[in-house]
Amino acid sequence: MINLSTKLASKGFTITFVQTEFIHHSISKAHHHHLLSADFDIFTEARKSGLDIRYTTISDGFPLDFDRHLNGDLFWETMFRDFPDRVDEVVARTMKDEEESCFFIIADTLCSWPATIAKKYNMVNVSLWTAPATVFSINYHLDLLKQNGHFPFTGDGENHINYIPGVQSISTRDLMSYIQHPNIKPVLVQITLKGFDQEPLAESDCTGWLHSKPPGSVLYVSFGSFAQSNKQLTAELAHGLLSSEVHFVWIIRPDVVGENGIDDILPIGFEDVIKDRGLIVPWCNQNRVLSSPAIGGFLTHCGWNSIMESIWHGVPMICYPFYVDQPTNRKLVVDDWKIGINLCEGERVTREEVASKINVVMNGEKSAELKREIKKVSEKLHDSLGSGGSSERNFNRFVDDLKAKLCEKQK
Predict the structure, then answer these.
(1) Percent of the chain beyond pLDDT 70?
(2) What is the dihedral sign for C-alpha 107, 111, 114, 115?
(3) Choice between 253 and 321, residue whose per-residue pLDDT is larger
(4) Is residue 103 part of a domain?
(5) Domain match, 296 and 234 both
(6) Which of 19, 40, 148, 312 is least surrounded by CB atoms within 10 angstroms?
(7) Is residue 295 part of a domain?
(8) How far apart are CA 101 and CA 186, in angstroms?
(9) Integer Cα distance of 159 and 182 in angstroms
(10) Cα-trace Rg, the chain
(11) What's the mean pLDDT when you consider all of the chain?
């Protein structure tokens, strides 16, 4: 969203970036200072360059100390019911301050409220999809999955699906978690169905630390908050990292692991044992870390942003997906593009397997093979973003379409 905002501002648009107060507070807390008082460092720099970007926050309806992970169902129920009215207030206030302007709203595709608000205020509604096109097509054709008995999937074993437009043959095991097991997290199904009905930050000390390490010697480890709250998984990862004997940077957010922070989930004395071999930080500039020559692999939960950034910088991946689009993203990385490996083949992660897979990616013949393959994919990604590349052409076409829609609204 930040990158899109600055890109649009560079094309002459005025941008108001709206962040929830909770996320605003969480990032500030992770950095131990008032990071966002300057409206994001990147926005400050953008404004210095003459770009018109504003920043504001909005309440999600809960106090800052409310546990949104533990009370996920209540949180999303309230977001569905009450959050649109709060957005409506922000939109109305923004439009009042800029009476002569024509407006558009950009929100994640899985948000269910933008279309209604856009219609109310005669705005152009832009839906931003942040996962692979494969995941979009699967979601868009849930009716086909229902017709063929694959949503919810009630069969035994593994089936292969080859009837979804734009999607190659895919196993039911590689479908998004909320399709495979909709009853485990029903709110995820609700978010997806509602969404498709509508059809940076301060630097930690990792950079300097990375400069002191040999090329390709450091593993970058970063999972989402759900994974970090799994104490057994975190303990196995910790022991596996120790056994692998590689250097590593590990992102662990203290605010999601308990009152005592990382001490609640790491083995006793872990930080003393790793000394200069490993670095644990609450946050880092992921692009900057992945761009370091010291990074040789990325242990990831397979979020789409992480995958794209890893490909961009040519870093092979060790994949351990959790939910939503992550299982499908893993399939693309490991099975289709062959630029990563699975962390484990079974249901449970063991420290022995963690150490083994780390060494596969960081050393030896398989490591060299993965680096060769990801170099090919990375070159394609770079080409698409170059002058005249497909990404640049598509973005310019989007800007032209957006301007045309805005002109229609003014008539």
Answers:
(1) 90
(2) positive
(3) 321
(4) yes
(5) yes
(6) 148
(7) yes
(8) 41
(9) 17
(10) 22
(11) 87
Q: What angle do CA 227, 179, 315 make, to 5 degrees?
A: 45
* Pure H helices in 258-363: 270-274, 286-290, 304-312, 326-330, 351-362
What angle do helix axes 186-197 and 72-97 make, rounded to 10 degrees? 30
Flag whether 270 is in a domain.
Answer: yes
CB atoms within 10 A of CB 279: 20
Same-domain status, 236 and 378:
yes
Give the pairing of strands 317-319 and 247-251: unpaired
Most confident of 203-207, 258-262, 343-347: 343-347
188 lies in the same domain as 292: no
Look up residue 253 and give its amino acid: R
Query: Do the Cβ atoms of 340 and 317 come closer than 8 Å?
Result: yes
CA angle, corner 381, sides to 379 and 384, nearest 5? 110
Q: Does residue 408 form part of some domain?
A: no
Q: Which H, E and C letters describe 115-163, residue by residue?
A: HHHHHHCCCEEEEECCCCHHHHHHHHCHHHHHHCCECCECCCCCCEECC
Kindly give the interhelix angle for 186-197 and 133-140, rounded to the nearest 10 degrees.
Answer: 90
pLDDT tens digits along 398-407: 999 999 999 8
Looking at the structure, tell me whether residues 223 and 370 fall in a common domain.
yes
Distance CA 240, CA 219 (A): 12
**Residue 64 dihedral angles phi and psi, to the nearest 5°:** -60, -30
Please choose, from the candidates 261, 268, 264, 313, the residue with its C-alpha nearest in 3D space to the C-alpha of residue 287: 313
98 and 213, same domain (yes or no): no
Burial of 113 (0-12, 13-18, 19+ CB in 10 A): buried
The residue written with tokens 């109305």 in the block is 92
Span of 94-98, 287-291, 320-324 with lowest mean pLDDT:
94-98
Give the CA distances from residue 16 to residues 52, 89, 379, in Å, rounded to whole numbers and listed in that order: 9, 14, 34
Judgement on whether residues 73 and 114 belong to the same structural domain of the protein: yes
Q: Please answer whether residues 267 and 290 qualify as being in contact, where contact means their C-beta atoms are separated by less than 8 angstroms.
A: no
According to DSSP, residue 113 is labeled S
What residues make up the domain containing 166?
133-197
Number of domains in the chain: 3
| 378 and 238 assigned to the same domain | yes
**Number of Cβ atoms within 10 Å of the Cβ of 272:** 7
What CATH number is associated with residue 7?
A: 3.40.50.2000
- Compute φ and ψ for 224, nearest 5 degrees: -75, 175
